[in-house]
Write a structure and sequence with these properties.
2 domains; seven-stranded mixed beta sheet; 13 strands; about 500 residues; Alkaline Phosphatase, subunit A
Length: about 500
């Protein structure tokens, strides 16, 4: 091989190593791991990112102008992301971009510290030195072929499912992928959907309807459903009606939530992308609506979030790759704001983090009766007992969180409906988590609480729900159940699918 090409290859590898070591490593330093085996596995994951970066740098370094224009800004942005990852355990998300763009200059400037400035300056100076060396000392023979080869190798790597998500969620690749998600969500907001509010009539003057969208909660791990562990001691003391036989067609959030909120059913799922949700019908009937989020949005359901009059989020810097505390109780101040807001008829939707992996993030030590818990982010390094314990602890915390909601609703004319988006596999047949075709992932917890005032105002609803509690349903029910909960009559409501009829 020509000496100039060897120098070009070594320079590309050096560029990739600088970015991987200085910035991508920030993502891995925050990962929980427990054994030497875990360290080896994490090291292998870092190596995958290094290989992907090497292919990227092969393409960039093929031409000196291309490298000079892209590499320094890439390093600058990466240094900012790495700084906030290490100091605040914050990752780049579309919601974080949204807030950054919406903030005024003073609010954004408050995040800039002298240390951040020094980190960015030092990193950028090093990047400029790299670019200067490339301009003066490196020459790639057949630059077009080198560029295409780098792009082809990187694109080929991203076609492998085992590589695509870990790469896309890490620095610096998350810059592109998060921006892509952000613009996909904005595009989704412009799409026309069928309006189902025609002919809708509300038969009540005042009501508070609360929908809690759960995460990964399977019904057979609730003690109110007969589970041998006492995971729901607080709900057991409340007049809660549980529905332990709810089947969900969809086993991951991006697909399940559009199904839950719309008239989509198992025979016509595409309605989730053609029609508006029950939220729009509520609005047309004089309800004021709130969406309180403890999860990031997705292009598949962001339009429904924006159907609400008010949209607020907590923990906007969190993603599946953050590992510090991420708790649903953080939603309570927003919930209290919604309760205090004027309006005789209200719809409040809380999108919770619930029992999502990494489980340990979603409960605090005082709600961890089941021990030992998982110590490693690497699932294969955890025992089934540890996984089950951590998962069940998330349910104990969810029980606590829901009890706090119920206490706030007791003196009001209110109904609370909890529906998990899907279930979770905990090692059955060697399968873990969700988004898999397992019986456990297709079972979604559901229960309903009605305040004394609501039961008095709707005397038939409670006995109807009690009677239906042992009947098998699909999550197709939720659209129709929600309309019944708000006393809304519409040609699109199917009473045979409602839990309240």
């Amino acid at each position: 091989m020509d000496r100039r090409n060897i120098r070009y290859l070594l320079f590309s590898l050096a560029s990739a190593f600088y970015v991987a070591l200085a910035f991508t490593s920030a993502d891995f330093l925050m990962m929980p791991f427990h054994t030497l085996r875990d360290i080896v596995i994490v090291g292998m994951q870092w190596a995958v990112l290094f290989v992907a970066l090497s292919f990227l740098m092969l393409a960039l370094a093929s031409h000196r102008l291309l490298y000079a224009l892209i590499f320094p800004p890439l390093v600058l942005l990466s240094s900012v992301l790495a700084y906030f990852r290490l100091t605040m355990n914050a990752v780049l998300t579309p919601m974080l971009l949204d807030v950054t763009f919406d903030n005024d200059l003073r609010t954004s400037a408050d995040m800039v510290t002298p240390v951040l400035i020094l980190v960015v300056l030092a990193s950028t100076i090093i990047a400029i030195l790299f670019a200067r060396y490339r301009w003066k000392r490196i020459e790639a023979l057949r630059a077009a072929i080198a560029f295409l080869a780098g792009c082809a190798l990187l694109c080929g790597m991203l076609q492998v499912d085992a590589f695509e998500r870990p790469i896309s969620e890490r620095i610096p690749f998350n810059i592109y992928y998060t921006a892509e998600k952000y613009f996909e969500e904005k595009e989704a907001l412009t799409q026309e959907r069928a309006d189902l509010s025609q002919g809708a009539v509300c038969r009540t003057d005042s009501a508070l309807v609360v929908l809690v969208i759960g995460e990964s909660l399977r019904p057979d791990h609730l003690s109110i459903n007969g589970y041998e562990r006492n995971t729901t001691p607080r709900l057991a003391k409340e007049d809660v009606i549980s529905f332990p036989s709810i089947y969900t067609e969809q086993t991951y959030t991006m697909r399940s939530i559009p199904h839950l909120l719309t008239r989509a059913d198992s025979s016509d799922y595409e309605r989730a992308y053609r029609e508006k949700s029950f939220i729009h019908i509520y609005n047309s009937c004089g309800y004021t609506s709130w969406w309180l989020a403890n999860q990031e949005a997705s292009s598949t359901f962001v339009s429904f979030m924006h159907e609400c009059d008010t949209l607020k989020s907590v923990n906007i810097e969190k993603s599946a790759y953050t590992y510090d505390k991420w708790l649903d109780a953080d939603l309570l101040p927003l919930f209290d704001q919604a309760l205090a807001a004027p309006g005789a008829r209200k719809l409040i939707i809380l999108h919770t983090i619930g029992s999502h992996w990494w489980y340990n993030s979603h409960f605090t030590p005082e709600f961890a009766p089941f021990q030992p818990i998982v110590q490693s982010r690497v699932i294969s390094s955890c025992t089934d007992e540890e996984i089950r314990n951590s998962y069940d602890n998330t349910i104990v915390y969810t029980d606590y969180f829901l009890s706090l909601l119920i206490q706030r609703l007791k003196p009001r004319n209110a109904i609370l409906i909890y529906q998990s988006d899907h279930g979770e596999a905990l090692g059955e047949n060697g399968v873990y988590l969700h988004a898999a075709e397992t019986p456990e992932a297709h079972r979604a917890a559901c229960f309903i609480y009605m305040s004394p005032a609501y039961q008095k105002a709707h005397p038939d609803v409670y006995p109807n729900a009690k009677r239906n509690s042992r009947t098998p349903y699909r999550t197709d029910h939720l659209f129709h159940t929600m309309l019944d909960a708000g006393s809304i009559e519409t040609p699109y409501r199917n009473e045979s699918l409602s839990l309240l009829k």
